Amino acid sequence: MEGEHLRFGIFLAPFHPVGQNPTLALQRDFELIEWLDWLGFDEAWIGEHHSAGYEIIACPEVFIAAAAERTRRIKLGTGVVSLPYHHPLMVAERIMQLDHQTRGRVMFGVGPGALPSDAFMMGIEVERQRDMMDEALAALVPLLRGEAVTMETEWFKLRDARLQLAPFTKPHVEIAVASQVSPAGARAAGKYGLSLLSLGATTTGGFNALASNWEICETKARQYGQQVSRKNWRLVGPMHVAETRDKARENVKFGLKAWLDYFREVAALPLAPEGPIDDAVDAMIASGLAVIGTPEDAVAQIYRLKEQSGGFGCFLQMAHEWADRESTLRSYELFARYVMPEFQGALHAPRASRDWAAANRTTFIGAAVQAIMSQIARHTEEQQQQQKKGATQPARKTGS
After folding, report:
1. What is the pLDDT of residues 7-47, one digit of tens each?
2. Rounded to two decimals, what is the model's pTM?
3. Does residue 117 share a domain with residue 16?
4. Which end of the chain is more exposed for a tag (fewer CB within 10 A), N or C?
């Protein structure tokens, strides 16, 4: 994969255990994105949730607006806006405003909604959510491309609707559709020519479905006369890296239990294996769900995903607080230092230069020694000439 340029980022749900100060938790999220921006990560996607008390950002657009003011280059995406919960015109207006506020750093991730408890509170039937997402996309795609839309469904109406602003991003803001194991996301991405965001890429079901999901996406794109690109395909998976595997395992004992409990007892996604924490860690590593180890283990995971998928454009770490603040930030630093350059063509030139210098070391040392000896000889000769010149000159007379 040397020479190819993968992008890297995070998918920030976020995950913050009940019982902690939520205000400080949000500030840690901002701090994390500032740190990633400094480290050179490419993207951060921020989620939308409305229940269960664990994933506590309700409006990713508000969060992105604040994060954009604290950062310089990292792109910021909604990860994701749950389309059945919003009128399409209002969503499009917010995204277009962010496109201008961020000077083109916003990305628009969409999905049907992940937590059934959110849909329940709004009286939305869970089985209707994916159809509602597709209906919303039929309106949002042309709206964000500057077109006027007239459309009526069971849950929204648009009458000659259009946005007040033209896109800052040319030709338009990137739209990405979330996908788990179900083919709904891949079908929608292909149908509208959008990017694909595979949230469960490292789960057993999600991993096994990677190749087939992309095939579905491409098939739908051909059917509807659209184009899709693997460069815009993002895969998501959790990682925590440290200098050694033992240290990484020790680090995650800080907060992994709360994360496991959330997915075992509350969330609808079957991410967490059963058993004591040490057994759970073993199972997560063995299944490929997570990397809890060294940068080398992270590199191996990305190669594994590339082989299984056939190629993708961006890897997003599922952000978490398995470790304490210091160890979490250190994990991202190690990733940026040792993992990212392996997939961004940054290592070949330094390695080649080092190997070339090492292979020719004898020649270079010989030339350097010769240059030094020449200078010594020249200096000695000059000194000898000055001494001879002084010896042949008559002594000066001095006045009495």
Report:
1. 999 999 999 999 999 999 999 999 999 999 999 999 999 99
2. 0.92
3. yes
4. C
